[in-house]
Amino acid sequence: MKYHGLRVAAYARSSTDAPHRLTEELRQLARIRGYCAANKMTIVSSAIEGAKIAVGAGDDQRDFEELVDRACSADRPFDAIVVASTSRVARRPGEFATYADRLSAGGVLLIAVDTSAANLLGKGA
């Protein structure tokens, strides 16, 4: 299997405010867990980012930025970051690809459950 054995970080982000925020975040995590189980990947880290008052999803995503920094560090604690949807990372054209390129330069995948991961490896893959 293509992703068998990968160590992954799960990332969920809500773009809605309470009261539905927790439900949306839990739904995303459930989709990620199911995808990882089906593909024999192990979730070794996770981050849930609450709703932000921002123009785009890329604004003020401290938890996601921290995951990217950790993924690209010398000890590389995980092989991929898995999100439920590309919109959880970026809404602006090219922003998702920028993250994918940054991660692929460090040998790390950025996988969106709702899209073919082969399209999300960045130009360095």
From TrEMBL:
This is Resolvase/invertase-type recombinase catalytic domain-containing protein. It comes from Sphingomonas ginkgonis. Residues 8-124 form the Resolvase/invertase-type recombinase catalytic domain. Coiled coil: none annotated. It comes from the Bacteria. GO terms for molecular function: DNA binding; DNA strand exchange activity.
